[in-house]
Design brief:
Length: 439
């Protein structure tokens, strides 16, 4: 694996490896990489001046009113060498105006701005996450997915050979793309897998999440399978979350740790949780951005439903892993793999820091397992519940000016427009549940 640090090194590497074009990748509003293929003959100009960009090609519904360009980040450049006949290069980009100023509708630039402000306050975040997915046979029948108790026929995978090929392809591609992982393992459900990312900066983790999702999709397609990141693909199975694990350092000291406090958690840790709790119902519109997301966040599920925090309760919104000292972390568990990680992290980090600044204390920790408790008891220990539907989450986002200020007017309006359109599509459709119940 070769590390490229300068544009001249990138140009030399492209020439030495006989690369004909480079994929310029950027995040759309929904958190999916779009890409333009740039010939290597234009590469030097592209790095110095950017690549002219038509916003309609990137899945954006708004008019920019000005010319914008794709500006590549040289630190993200890598040559993907999977085999002798499979070699290409890619680089992650941001959307900028011609004068180099960030474009307000760029999710990656938004997270960079948030992180820069937090850094100027003396704080540094280290973040990890895990990307969960299901591998399906490409010919699965979605309408029959609930009818097989073992899910082998309509779910899981076509055959073990194909699954193993997909797994090896994913691992090779992750290594080639310089995505550092801690593990790649099976999940609890049949056909479920998870890629656990090694911790890094907020921007690096968001880049890696989108890269991992693209690699998984491409690898599954290559070997005749289908990878889904749908938060809740089956009623009878647990859904797909994407938890964020965060530690906060100041002057190289973990701000969440205090040896003399209860649970060895500092006041800053509690304030950080308090800030997230204050804004979590609006954050859900971005961290859980589909109608299907709220089929996962239901009562009697291992996914969070109540706004609680705990060192032991597996159903809490925020869990505190057992490690202390420099390794003290907070794990936020509601986000799912359909979200845009640049935008979700922008809101989570900003909300947490605002809690520290405002010294917001959350409700008391629920340091016992609640799975056998009644729903009324669970609610009494909580600071409320997460939204029950997508439309409820969006209404909370619309009412939370703090969150809209973090993302800016353009992204906030885009999120609301996209959400309203999805909800309108959903409520205008007759679904199988209704047919089974009423027809």
């Amino acid at each position: 694996m070769v590390q490229f640090n300068t544009i001249s090194e990138i140009l030399d590497g492209v020439s030495e490896n006989d690369i004909g074009y480079v994929k310029f990748q950027f995040s759309d509003l929904g958190g999916v990489f779009r890409e333009l293929e740039v010939p290597t003959s234009f590469l030097e100009t592209a790095f110095s001046k950017g690549v002219p960009f038509d916003s309609s090609a990137g899945g954006f519904s708004w008019s920019t009113g000005a010319d914008i360009v794709l500006k590549p980040d040289p630190r993200t450049f890598s040559i993907i060498d999977l085999s002798s006949d499979e070699k290409y290069a890619r680089v992650i980009c941001e959307l900028c105006y011609l004068d180099g100023q960030p474009f307000e509708g760029c999710p990656r630039s938004t997270l960079k701005t948030v992180v820069r402000k937090i850094y100027q306050s003396g704080y540094t975040f280290y973040i990890s996450s895990s990307v969960h997915f299901f591998l399906l046979d490409a010919g699965f029948n979605a309408g029959n997915m609930e009818k097989s108790s073992s899910d082998v026929t309509n779910f899981k995978y076509g055959n073990e050979v194909a699954v193993e090929k997909v797994k090896q392809e994913i691992l090779r591609s992750l290594s080639a793309s310089e995505v550092d992982i801690l593990s790649f393992h099976r999940g609890r459900e049949i056909g479920q897998y998870a890629v656990v990312l090694k911790e890094g900066s907020a921007l690096r983790i968001a880049d890696n999440i989108l890269t991992v999702k693209q690699i998984i999709r491409d690898a599954a397609l290559k070997f005749g399978l289908h990878a889904t990141f749908m938060p809740k693909p089956m009623t009878s199975k647990e859904g797909l979350g994407m938890p964020f694990t965060l530690s906060l350092l100041k002057n190289d000291i973990n701000e969440f740790y205090h040896p003399d406090k209860e649970m060895m958690l500092s006041d800053s840790a509690r304030y950080f949780i308090g800030g997230i709790f204050k804004h979590i119902r609006g954050i859900c519109a971005v961290a859980n951005p589909t109608v299907n997301s709220y089929k996962r966040l239901v009562k009697k599920s291992e996914a969070p439903h109540y706004v609680t925090w705990s060192t032991v309760d597996r159903c809490s919104l925020i869990q505190i892993p057992s490690s202390r000292g420099r390794a003290t972390k907070i794990e936020l568990r509601n986000a799912d793999v359909s979200c845009n990680p640049y935008l979700a992290l922008s809101l989570v980090l900003s909300a947490g820091i605002s809690g520290i600044n405002e010294q917001l204390l959350p409700n008391n920790a629920v340091n016992f397992e609640t799975h056998d408790y009644s729903e009324s008891e669970k609610e009494s220990y909580s600071q409320g519940t997460l939204p029950g539907t997508f439309v409820e989450a969006v209404e909370n986002f619309k009412c939370d000016q703090f969150l809209q200020n973090v993302l800016g007017d353009m992204l906030s309006k885009g999120i609301i427009q996209k959400a309203d359109a999805e909800w309108d599509d959903y409520i205008s459709c007759v679904h199988q549940w209704e047919i089974d119940r009423y027809l």
